[in-house]
Amino acid sequence: MSFELTILGNSSSTPTSRRHPSAQVLKINNDFILIDCGESTQNQMLRYKISHSKLRYIFISHMHGDHFLGLPGLLCTMSVQGRIDDLDIYCPEELEFLINLQFSLSDVQIKFKIIYHKLKFDAPSEILETRDYKVTSIPLKHRINCAGFTFQERAYGRKINKQETDHLNLTQPEFENLRNGGDYKGKDGKVISNAKLTFDARKSFRYAYITDTLYDEELIPHIDHFELLYHEATFAHDMVDRARSTFHSTALQAGKLASRAKVGKLLIGHFSARYQKLEELLDEAKDVFIRTDIAEEGKTFKLR
Amino acid sequence: MSFELTILGNSSSTPTSRRHPSAQVLKINNDFILIDCGESTQNQMLRYKISHSKLRYIFISHMHGDHFLGLPGLLCTMSVQGRIDDLDIYCPEELEFLINLQFSLSDVQIKFKIIYHKLKFDAPSEILETRDYKVTSIPLKHRINCAGFTFQERAYGRKINKQETDHLNLTQPEFENLRNGGDYKGKDGKVISNAKLTFDARKSFRYAYITDTLYDEELIPHIDHFELLYHEATFAHDMVDRARSTFHSTALQAGKLASRAKVGKLLIGHFSARYQKLEELLDEAKDVFIRTDIAEEGKTFKLR
Question: How far apart are the C-alpha atoms of A105 and B94, rounded to whole Å?
Fold first, then answer.
């Protein structure tokens, strides 16, 4: 299974001449998933050659404009350019209301079906399960209702050791039993341990998108040992008071959470427009968690 | 008085990798005026180094997203970056409602005062008069209520001919009388004709912004002999049926209207995303009105 993450925007509320508000596209196999959709997302998709016609799901974390203002325009463009496939949008219920009102005031008819799924903000909640992965929303600690999202590949079965199993002429149910970790039991009552007939399962990939939030160790159980964590880092730590009062995190805090959750890799983003260069924020996070990278716009992180 | 027009967006509803939806900044003396505000307008202002803090007035023609979707984000940015000056917005009343609702759902407080002025769409209406110019809204023929705007410099008084007036030792009221075209009457009853003591007044500059509309000759009296006309040209004329059914104009029609209204210069814009190169549209308009130019993004037309 392929897992690719392309960053479209890494700015917080105010864009800069080079940075745009939050948006990223996660590709899992053939599913293109848009996570947040700040203003100019459709321009960023044009720039980085990601076709909106491929989008299957959209997830919107919360009702601050820098996370959704690009959505109405994107939906209109999809419609004008002939989309007919259904589109599932996971978002706060107020967004459905707002978008429908706007389309009504603009006398716009969207020609494909949009299925809105209302996010809950009181507890983690599994919101989507496909054949290949599941998506969970996790409440974050922001000024208004806000959700993070985790994307977890389905668990793989153990790999069959062909050399050791060939002479056993296994049936399909016997293969399944081995993949699920069971031992082999022959008709003659002979038992061969699973460890002898299989290899460890391929590791499932897990990605967490944690945007606008205070530093929050309650997140750790939900992202523990994840392969990749995106965590907002709006400010450097010398502005921790401002981060706290605006319900945001610092780069150091992002690094600290990544370290405590023992993730494989950390991407930081959602930078305040006050930072012209991002090295300061990267260095600060790296001081506590070395495997940190900037969520650089236009960059695709191939995760497998 | 200086008159400068900078184009920020010349695309119709769908942006392309190089073009953005409608927005332009008109500078009259020290007043910066934003006309329409499609998605990404604040990015375009950053790109072309026009500070949003200078904006004094905003005019929004109608409720189609490609003409206003950049406004909520721009207002938030202005507020975050410390604007305190009042801002006057002339727009359909639904837009005020929509923006206030969105800010309320997003729990956003704008820290400066926005004064909304409701456009009327039943007849031309003078909506703003400053010391230097006046602005009139003109109903256009679009699918929904839509207004064009004209910006007309105040009339200048006739210029005093110093050589001829020096020996008369004129009082202030006598100067005013000459500037307004009156003849000079001396204390001795002697009359000198105005033509002898003054030169023709400096010509006032007039600009018309005519976006989303059917070809409409009823506009001519309102833009007659204007120095500059911006007119939408969404399609080439081989798509005149499509233009008609979507209440838009072709490049040829824009040229025809410019010609009939005897304007000084025509700018065409609001191009459909189907046109990769714009020469086809420019040539078509030029065939009927030679003084046509593309409303090219980033270009500033210095009008005086």
Answer: 7
Structure tokens at B215: 């070809």
Please indicate whether residue A66 is annotated as part of the active site.
yes
B interface residues, A as partner, C-beta within 8 Å: 13-17, 20-21, 39-40, 42-43, 46-47, 63-66, 69-70, 72-73, 76-77, 80-81, 94, 97-98, 101-102, 105-108, 143-144
Measured CA angle at A66 (ends A62, B73), to 5 deg:
130
Q: How far is CA B158 from CA A76, A126, B204, in A?
A: 52, 76, 12
Q: Would you say the pTM of this structure is higher than 0.90?
A: yes
CB atoms within 10 A of CB B102: 22
Q: Compute the distance between CA of residue B250 and CA of residue B233 in angstroms, rounded to an integer.
A: 5
- Residues A267-278 pLDDT 10s: 999 999 999 999
ipTM: 0.91
For the stretch B231-289, pLDDT in tens is 999 999 999 999 999 999 999 999 999 999 999 999 999 999 999 999 999 999 999 99
Contact list, B108 vs chain A (CB under 8 Å): 64-65
Query: What domains can be seen in chain B, in order of their start residue?
Result: 3-156+202-302 (3.60.15.10), 159-199 (no CATH)
